[in-house]
Amino acid sequence: MHAPSPAEYAKIMRPYHDQGVSLAAKIGNRGPLRWAADGQLHPSILAAYWAHGYYIFEDVIGADEIAALRLDAADIIERAPVSPDATVDAKGRPAHGLDYGKPAYRLAKPLADPWGGTDLLGGRHPTKMVEPTPAEGAAEYAVFLIYGMCQSMPAGLRLYGHPHLLKIAEGINGPDFTPYNDAIFVKQPGLGGSVSWHQDGITHWDSPHWDAGIHGFNFQVQLYQTTPANGLWVLPGSHKQGRIDIKALVADNGGSDRLPGAIPLVCAPGDVTIVNRQMLHGSFANYSEDLRVSITFGFHRRTSVLGARPGLSMAGIIDVYDDAVIFDRSAVVQVAIDARRQHFQMEKPYRYQPFLGREDEFRFTRETQETVIKDYFMKDLAI
Fold first, then answer.
1. CA 164 to CA 348: how far, in whole Å?
2. Residue 204 pLDDT more than 70?
3. Most buried pick, 13, 38, 91, 319, via CB within 10 A?
């Protein structure tokens, strides 16, 4: 197949973008964060989320907090290794994260699809996206993903304890919800790679207790404007269909990765999306001039995780998710709540049910940075 230039690819994608934006407008599923009289997430938002598998909360994160997150993110993007095996950044300095328990970055070739058509991540990306030819002189590698924000980004740790986001997690997964993981998706202008169509869930498709929420959901906090060219695309309602034969879906579409019925999640800085992890979703190569940085972190029902064997990147690292593992990983949430409390002193902190009465044991201190935050991603609850 001919690899189009960025200009050719833009022309190919334009009608698809227009169609997706039009469909998204008809569905709606976006608006300000609203609460019911009892302080819980408004039932109309919950109903919309469960009907379509996603929601866009508008203007949740304030401008000052977005500015702090941008500064922290820009710093660790700049300090990335220049290649997958390198130990220095583009300025010749020691790269960030060399002492982490696992690599802090995933790099990719410009405009490439590094996972599509491979067995990586449990083979959940069975088809490959179009890979445009990057502009002449493009960097050999671009930052694709960054891990460990709670350890590397002070503003990221505070975001992890955001009371409104945690209240949303409670509304969807119950007050004893557990964390999943976090990752920062980076789509640099003219370089950002694609993520082929996939469903995130791995372990519970054949569970006798399977339902539309068993694999949890992900937040994405948008630090910059997202567009049809650089943003996430979802197939509304697909979270209720069970495991989808993605190869057959693409084949039935004439082999095209421009799946009908999909919509882009177009956001302003400070908007927050939630996407069900069973939703069919993906993103296209970022040929545009717009930077995307999406801070992504997910949450589960505790009943989905307890007793489960890990999947994805955690397979083989932990044998089973028992009470102790779940508690240790959940402690990051409680420390994040306190880090936020110390910084935003006029804000009412979230009260996290598994740690009620034990808050003083999990304050944000130098000690808990070592005992709770350091290498916390080695205990991610991946299912």
1. 10
2. yes
3. 13
